[in-house]
């Protein structure tokens, strides 16, 4: 789903009725922001805590990049309207949860996780882990393909050749289709990374090396030296460059 951070909130291009317990904000380029009120934040916290989910952690973007750097051929897929694909009933069955009357604080009236809700990222990742990651990991291991997912951004890579990876992408697509999720074909990329760089999660990868994108470097150059933003960007830049240091 097309989104970006705006004041720490999740921005969605999908225009919906404002869910109860949320404020409707207008972000850049006409996007809509759903900001939870304090009661909704408390409800989300209690539901996560009662189900022992408040401390669940998932791989960060660097964990999702590192395994691919030694590979040559890349297939990048983006899930279309990913949060919208997670329905209340499916989430309850798949994750063994029961939302009851509180469901309206987690799901839109016509289905789909609420973008901007505190628990949505955790619920989405847990849901995808069961319905998508497990079958994809099994398939990719058999096919000698490296697979990682960061929310709705999927990356596959191999040492084979472009045609070999493309042929096996049919099996990948079948698994995604069976899960009920959809691919945003406009963002699909298949490249030989020895010759063509690829951008993934804000990092430019090319021939086994990673570096910040030009857009990020421009943002860093505009930040006020010594500011909190500057130090945050500088730390992120160091982590990107550290990906090039061999383990051990």
UniProtKB/TrEMBL annotation:
It holds the Pfam family RVT_1. PROSITE patterns: RT_POL. This is Retron-type reverse transcriptase. InterPro entries: DNA/RNA_pol_sf (IPR043502), Rev_trsase/Diguanyl_cyclase (IPR043128), RT_dom (IPR000477). GO terms for molecular function: RNA-directed DNA polymerase activity. The keyword Mitochondrion does not apply. The keyword Hydrolase does not apply. Residues 1-205 form the Reverse transcriptase domain. Keywords: Nucleotidyltransferase, RNA-directed DNA polymerase, Transferase.
């Amino acid at each position: 789903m097309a989104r970006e951070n705006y004041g720490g909130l999740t921005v969605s291009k999908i225009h919906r009725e404002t869910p109860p317990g949320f404020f409707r904000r207008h972000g850049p380029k006409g996007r809509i922001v759903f900001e939870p009120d304090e009661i909704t934040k408390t409800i989300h916290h209690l539901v996560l805590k009662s189900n022992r989910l408040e401390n669940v952690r998932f791989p960060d973007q660097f964990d999702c990049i590192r395994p691919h750097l030694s590979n040559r051929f890349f297939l990048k897929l983006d899930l279309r309207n990913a949060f919208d694909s997670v329905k209340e009933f499916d989430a309850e069955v798949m994750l063994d949860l029961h939302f009851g009357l509180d469901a309206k604080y987690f799901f839109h009236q016509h289905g789909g996780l609420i973008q901007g809700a505190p628990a949505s990222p955790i619920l989405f990742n847990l849901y995808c882990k069961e319905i998508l990651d497990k079958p994809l990991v099994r398939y990719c291991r058999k096919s000698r393909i490296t697979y990682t997912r960061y929310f709705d951004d999927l990356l596959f890579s191999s040492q084979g050749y472009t045609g070999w990876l493309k042929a096996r992408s049919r099996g990948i697509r079948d698994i995604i289709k069976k899960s009920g999720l959809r691919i945003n074909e406009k963002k699909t990329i298949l490249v030989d990374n020895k010759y063509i760089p690829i951008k993934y999660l804000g990092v430019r990868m090319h021939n086994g090396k990673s570096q910040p994108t030009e857009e990020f470097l421009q943002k860093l150059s505009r930040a006020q030296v010594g500011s909190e933003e500057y130090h945050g960007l500088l730390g992120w830049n160091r982590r990107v460059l550290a990906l090039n240091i061999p383990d051990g």
